[in-house]
Amino acid sequence: MLDRPLRSRSLSDIGLRNEAKKARPGERHKDWKNRKRIHWNTLRIFSCRARRKWSWIIRRCRTASVEQAPNGTAPLATLLLILASCSCLAPVAPAQAGLDGPRVRARALGIVVGSYEPGPLNAITDVAGVSVGQTTLISGEGPLKPGLGPVRTGVTVVIPRDDVWHKKVPAGSFVLNGTGEMTGLAWISESGFLEYPIALTNTLNVPRVANGVMSWMIARYPEIGITDDTLTPVVAECDDGRLNDIQGRHVSEVDVSQALDGASFGVVQEGTVGAGTGMVSYGFKGGIGTSSRRLPETEGGYTIGVLVNANHGRRPELVMGGVPVGKLYEAPQAMTAPFSPGQSEGSIIVIIATDAPLDSRQLTRLAKRAALGLARTGSTARHGSGDFMLAFSTANTIPHYPKEPTFQHLHLADTHLNPLITATVDATEEAILNALTMATTVVGRDSHRIEEISLSRLRAILDHQAK
């Protein structure tokens, strides 16, 4: 996992700030491309192949044992230091144990979506400066005791960049079906920018999570609401009431602060974690998923990252890699209790990040295309589903209070949007698939059991269709 100082390095750290200030627009664009190239070269160094990584560890361990331990055993502290120094090299999250073996991502199952290559982490954090934090809450079992448990919920946060309050990012949104809530969208639509972290949680926890975001922001910017503007946090929800005591609103301000303070620029945990802890997708255990795409240099070399909270769809609808898995899957129905007329039909939240220089209008267009990736997995945006998409770009900075009446930004011509559109659709589809393949079985309130999709059964279906 990459550490925060490395990924948030400023221009002055690489000796470009003064030159960037003096440069003309065309030169500033070259400057921006150089900075992006430096970022990707750094990521290449920190995301080498696992084979190279472990062979290097073994060589270091052997060297340590010879040089520091005459009896042939390296001191424990040395081994721990070596392993710690290499932990940032891992391009994937530690495997979670499932019912039929370790959980893996869609690509490990041979499902390759589209032709563009993913970034080193295949995650939203491949976009430089973007960090993700999560708090998972699991406690209690047995019958539902409203307000007490069992608890199967959490919060996931996406921070567009450090100090986003003073260095705002262009943003745009799209609502495919509005049976749900993502707060703050009216201001984003009006202003064209995003100025605080994005939080994902369950439906009834929205006010408490918003309160947590506000408290976290005020602690860092104590002038908010006194000598500075107020804020309207962006909090998006999905209903996890099938597994969780949703009336309890168990995500606290402390949990939100923990997620924000712990946000990192590296590997993103997926599946049954954070806001995805109690989510159900296509009749299987759903939750958090992420993916990314990097365009070739001939198409700009930009990166697009997507993070989803998948809580949508019905079993027969599920399509994975173009295969109608939901119809071919022969395991028993995952949900042990049917939906009653008053229950939610599910939702999905899609967060899109890019380093392409796009304005709010273009980002809104990009957010709309995420719905196509959702549709590829079989979703029909049912009447009771809340399907919200939010996109932002880290390429440009919108100042908090501009000193001059005008300022200039470079942005991509609309005629060059097509590769970004394709990458967004592909990354959205793969993020949803990753949420499914990484999620693990959960038994929640009233012993409701939501099964993970069986990877052995999924492999068999995919192999059969490939013949």
Explain what the structure shows.
This protein has 467 residues and is an alpha+beta fold. It folds into two domains: 4-85, no CATH class; 93-466, L-amino peptidase D-ALA esterase/amidase. 31% of the residues lie in helices and 19% in strands. It is built from twelve helices and 17 strands. It has helices spanning 4-7, 17-22, 25-46, 50-68, 76-86, 185-191, 206-220, 253-261, 325-328, 360-376, 418-438, 455-466, and strands spanning 97-98, 101-102, 131-139, 151-159, 167-178, 193-194, 198-202, 234-238, 280-281, 284-285, 287-294, 303-311, 347-354, 386-393, 398-399, 442-443, 449-450. Strands 5, 6, 11, 12, 13, 14 and 15 form a seven-stranded mixed sheet that branches. Strand 11 and strand 12 (303-311) form a beta hairpin. The longest helix is centred in the N-terminal third of the chain and has 22 residues, at 25-46. Residues 1-32 and 38-90 have low confidence and may be disordered.
Properties at a glance:
L-amino peptidase D-ALA esterase/amidase, 2 domains, globular, disordered N terminus, 12 helices, 467 residues, 19% strand, alpha+beta
Choose one word for the global shape.
globular
| CATH class designation of the largest domain | Alpha Beta
- Which consecutive residue ranges, at least 5 long each, have pLDDT under 50? 1-32, 38-90
Strand content: 15-25%
CATH topology of the largest domain: L-amino peptidase D-ALA esterase/amidase
CATH homologous superfamily placement of the largest domain: L-amino peptidase D-ALA esterase/amidase
Distance between the termini: 38 Å
Helix count equals 12
Q: How many distinct domains?
A: 2
Helix-strand sequence: HHHHHEEEEEHEEHEHEEEEHEHEEHEEH
